[in-house]
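job 3f2a | input accepted
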Amino acid sequence: MVEVVPAILVASFEELRATLDKVRGLTPWAQVDVCDGYFVPSRTWPMNPGDQSAFRTMVKEKKGLPYWEDFNFEVDLMVEEAEKVIPDWVALGATRVAIHIEAKHDFDACRRALTDGIEFGIALVNDTPLSRLVPLTGQFDYIQLMGIASVGKQGLPFDERVLDRIREAKRMFPGIPIQIDGSVNGETAHALVEAGADRLVSGSYILRADDPEKAINTLAHA
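job 3f2a | predicted structure (222 res):
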């Protein structure tokens, strides 16, 4: 059975809480998608200027994310200079953190910002050769490949190139978990798992479903 992770891409803290409530008790994991409006055109919580004061208070007081006792949180940082915000997410309890290789960042600083026990992932769009990961071998815990052609949006069409990329990543980096984000649904999941995906990250298919539990089970048993 494959691991399923709901992807949460929201505009406000209130929407974050309401969205998490939809899948509370259905899965131990949730991925918070963070978009800065620079690396990707869209901007999500907490990267809006009006979010910053309340977010800084959360970080300072280490309040944790909503329903922190019910979820293990991973954070997909679609941002420039991820090293500047990783410590905030660590303070809020993230246990997996992914950066995008195409974004501007200080890789060593990103690594140093993580404390023991936190998994470090690298995400790549389908136009980026997997060979870019080779010099970083041994310095990341999982790879996130994209089921869509671009990042920062939900509901985009499936990019079939990812199937060959999963197989290639499995050959190049044996033992490293491969997770897929984007256009993961009841129609694509089986092919993704068959190609070798270990984790399926899904947003709209789960969150817009009449029965989120059924949607999660469909993916888990693909």
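job 3f2a | Strands lie at 3-8, 29-35, 72-78, 94-100, 119-124, 142-146, 178-181, 199-202.
job 3f2a | closed
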